[in-house]
Amino acid sequence: MTQSDKANAAASEAPSVAYPSIDPATVVGWGVDADPKNDPTWPIRDRSGDDGARADWTPPSAQVAGVEILQSVEYGRRPAVVGESTPPAGLSGMVRRAAFRFSEGQWGHWLLLMGADRLNTVEGLLQDFRRGRMPNPLFEMGFVKHERRHEAALATAAVVGVAVAGLVLLNRRRHHLSL
Amino acid sequence: MLAMDYRGPRRVRIEHKPMPVIQHPRDAVVRVTRSCICGSDLHLYHGMVPDTRVGMTFGHEFCGVVEEVGPDVQNLKRGDRVLVPFNIACGQCHFCKQGLFGNCHESNAQATAVGGIFGYSHTAGGYDGGQAEYVRVPYADFGPTLIPDWMDPDDAVLLTDVVPTGYQAAEMGGIQKGDTVVVFGAGPVGLMAARCAWLFGAGRVIVIDHVEYRLEFARTYCPAEVYDFREIGDPVVFLKKITEIGADVCIDAVGADASGNAWHTLFGKKLKFEAGNATPLAWAINSVKKGGVVSIVGVYGPTGNMIPIGNVVNKGVTIRANQASVKRLLPRLIDHVQAGRIDPKGLITHRVPLEDVAEAYHLFSSKLDGCIKPVLIPNAE
User: Which InterPro entries does its entry note (chain B) (predicted)?
Assistant: First the structure.
């Protein structure tokens, strides 16, 4: 069981709330001012087929997810279909799992996710290096067209190479002077 | 297949990715023929939406051809031309039954506030989007709509989001004949909202922005009175002067990426202490008349923004907002396109091969070359 599964299980095991049972018909004056025309949600929300049912619709058949899905603690059960793009992984994935221990109403949830996004950007660069791929910011930021991406990569590599060589030379010079 | 690939704020590229597959009996796989970059994609591109993961494919405005359907999809077949609403909606939950297809409860595991949206971060469900050659479409027996034979695909792709969102912005305003309507933002949605305000009987339509070429476009496309907020001093005072008591309806069609206030730009956009810069929303609240309506379709992050909520109470302002419920609106909007009352493809300024997606994002984000609406075309000749 993953950490997110544990968090989801904990959420679903939360004690149910005992609601006070009040029969509206016993309340003096119940409904005397009800006016169906007083509906600021019209026409966005169509109440014409409202049968009073709330959460007891027949759910669609559930997708069997092939990857880890983080789930809001505000759900009683997982929605029937899920997106399987880019499952949580690495350090950013750990932070995302931590974020999903908070509800959507807590800033901690969103701030941790924003932090994870920034970490994920660095992870993306490291992933490129691991695959032997030179980052190509000129192309990725849209400054050059697709057909000129190789020249942009070479230009970036040249700039980085010159910068690194310069730093090495500077360091050697300082070392030499300090001797 | 080729697909857009997010690498971090302001960095995207084209990548070879695995073909999407049927993952649920109600899925379809669609070959994309047109895919737009939306103004709200720029919120993702700028790193403003939480849980936007490196490697994701964006794109919630697309149309195409059905390539494959799951066993429960009986209303579509391979080869059908479809436009796909940006909302992923089951059609059977409590919210879908009430027509709130942007609030489906069966399509977004990561957040309860909004239903699933194609290619719009994991906060909207974690689905890869349509800025690709192929895309998985969940609940394909409910969402996708057949494109009429007479309809241009450039019109069809704009019916997946821009047109319904602009239309719903005007609809939520409850515009009555003769009303004065102010639209903040002359992006594609703002332009469409201003155009649709006339359909509801507006007597005067005003568009506020600071990008000159977009204001010029609004002047003829909508058509509307246009003002550059950099040239009118305090926009609220200016609007109260030219409308005497304030506008009947104000529409925020900008959202988190707004300009116009250094404080909110710093705290909302740069430092992310707010869910973006809500300056147009503050202007809308303050310049609408007492008892007026503010309609919000600009997209904000899920945290919080500093807005003058006390003025909402004191003025008796009605605020209405939602993601557009595309499926609900499509029949009416298709009628409007056929009758020539709205011209969606008139918004398109750039048609770009999918391979040049990075350049298209840069062009749109930086408002270069007169860009209003860029459309990506996979397999462009």
Answer: ADH-like_C, ADH-like_N, ADH_Zn_CS, GroES-like_sf, NAD(P)-bd_dom_sf
